[in-house]
Design brief:
The protein is an alpha+beta fold and 246 residues long. 29% of the residues lie in helices and 28% in strands. The chain has two domains: 3-50 and 121-243, no CATH class; 52-116, no CATH class. It contains eight helices and nine strands. The protein has a six-stranded antiparallel β-barrel. It has a two-stranded antiparallel sheet with strand order 4-5.
Length: 246
């Protein structure tokens, strides 16, 4: 059973408390630490869809934008008439009549405005987690914040490493091919459970530590609102969305 860290929220509905724990890439729980804290103020789930109009600009406006604008706006017919008057010839009369027919018309069609689905970024959740101490700032504020930061940071960054050193490490037999080429370890994957839904696996894209928060006589934070942005590892479809309630 996971060890729960965070502030005490006796009497608060469990649906108002967010729960974070480490998972593997398949969403299975790993580790033995679970952070619990409520979101305060606005917490937002963003789902963005990438729709594009590939045929935009396929009409006359795209081929000759300046000429098209002059035709539709009535500038070209007036210019043609003026040239005809200056030259004293009626050769431009037919051209002027055709140009006037373009006034108020557009090359825009339904095809030009048709949008196609071109993918989606991961789901993102942004909000502020509240930690505050009733009796012990160390266990209720300091430890959960430190754990959040540890999850957000890479597990290990190799002090040095280039393709040349990777070749040498592999050639010497000290490391395998993968370990030589990729010597560092990425941040942890997490699952977030909040208001009856579980989002997993997720990564911490951003976490803030407001250093101006109140502290006790030992310099330990007694309360802190931690801004955090989490994103799913991949895009989600409708089945994934419904499975989050499972």
């Amino acid at each position: 059973m996971a060890s729960v860290v965070g502030s005490k929220w006796d009497g608060m509905s469990r649906h108002l408390i967010a729960s974070l724990h480490e998972v593997d890439i398949g969403g299975n729980a790993v580790g033995d630490i679970e952070i619990q804290a409520p979101f305060v103020e606005d917490v937002q789930l963003d789902l963005e869809m990438n729709w594009q109009s590939p045929f935009e600009g396929a009409g006359a406006e795209g081929a000759a934008p300046a000429m098209s604008s002059m035709l539709q706006g009535g500038a070209l017919p007036a210019l043609v008439e003026k040239v005809g008057e200056q030259l004293g010839t009626s050769i431009f009369d037919g051209l002027s009549s055709s140009a006037r027919a373009a006034i108020g018309r557009s090359g825009m069609t339904k095809l030009n405005s048709t949008q196609i689905f071109n993918g989606m970024p991961p789901l993102r959740i942004q909000g502020e987690l509240l930690f505050r101490a009733w009796s012990d700032p160390q266990s209720e504020v300091e430890i959960p914040i430190d754990q959040l930061v540890q999850w957000a940071l890479p597990e290990y960054l190799a002090p040095v490493g280039t393709i040349a050193t990777a070749i040498l490490d592999y050639a010497s037999g000290d490391k395998g091919l993968v370990e030589s080429a990729f010597p560092s370890l990425v941040p942890a994957l997490l699952a977030l459970t909040y208001k009856g839904r579980t989002y997993s696996p997720m990564v911490i894209e951003r976490v803030g530590v407001p250093l101006g928060g109140p502290v006790d006589k030992f310099g330990r934070f007694t309360q802190m609102k931690v801004p955090i942005t989490l994103a799913t590892l991949t895009g989600k479809d409708r089945n994934d969305w419904m499975a989050m309630k499972g």
